[in-house]
From TrEMBL:
Entries under InterPro entries matching the protein: DEAL/Modifying_wall_lignin1/2, DESIGUAL
Compartmental location: Endomembrane system
Protein name according to UniProt: Uncharacterized protein
Pfam family, one: DUF1218
Transmembrane segments: 53-75, 87-114, 142-164
Residue ranges of coiled coil: none
Keywords annotated in UniProt: Membrane, Signal, Transmembrane, Transmembrane helix
Membrane topology: Multi-pass membrane protein
Signal peptide as annotated in the record: 1-26
First-listed, main subcellular location of the protein, grouped into a coarse class: membrane
């Protein structure tokens, strides 16, 4: 089954929106801190059950799916016709938006992974020998920021896809005109 450009753009938008929503929910469900329980020469941090790590991980998975699908959709041979990459990158606006989409995807990945991994480390390493610990959690705001950058990257992939479509049309129009004129 061959996919159309419209279907690919819907897949990119769906994964990007899902990554955004899961990142926002993860940010909202993250506890402010744990409850310190003092023992003999240690403090054990008791954290409430929350889905932050799972939601953050799912947000990362859907961001990666958005990025892979977005990149794949740019070079996919729609209607069995492929376009050389050099034709696409001849367009300055396509090259700029492609690079911005890649950069924003990387930034979103960083902003989502950092607090997700940190939160998992806090949950698994909850025994502290410093009696003055206050049972920290991951930095507040990073998951939410990563979610918004994830949404931005999906939008940049969609703009890149539109620009790739324009470059494809121009390429095939030029090819057809060359055949008609015999050049």
């Amino acid at each position: 089954m061959a996919l159309s450009m419209k279907q690919m753009s819907l897949i990119v938008a769906f994964f990007g929106l899902l990554s955004f929503i899961l990142g926002i929910i993860a940010e909202n469900k993250k506890p402010a801190s744990g409850t310190p329980i003092t023992g003999k020469d240690v403090v054990i941090c008791n954290y409430p059950a929350d889905p932050t790590v799972a939601l953050g991980s799912l947000s990362v998975v859907f961001l990666v799916a958005t990025t892979v699908t977005g990149c794949y959709s740019l070079f996919y041979p729609y209607k069995g016709k492929s376009v050389p990459q050099s034709v696409l990158f001849r367009s300055t606006s396509f090259a700029v938006f492609f690079n911005v989409a890649l950069f924003s995807s990387g930034l979103a990945l960083t902003l989502l992974l950092w607090p997700t991994i940190t939160e998992q480390l806090h949950l698994s390493g909850n025994v502290h020998h410093n009696l003055n610990t206050d049972c920290p959690t991951a930095k507040t705001g990073l998951l939410g920021g990563g979610a918004f950058v994830s949404l931005d990257s999906a939008l940049f992939w969609l703009v890149s896809l539109m620009l790739a479509d324009n470059a494809r049309e121009d390429h095939f129009d030029d090819s057809e005109e060359g055949l008609k004129t015999g050049v």
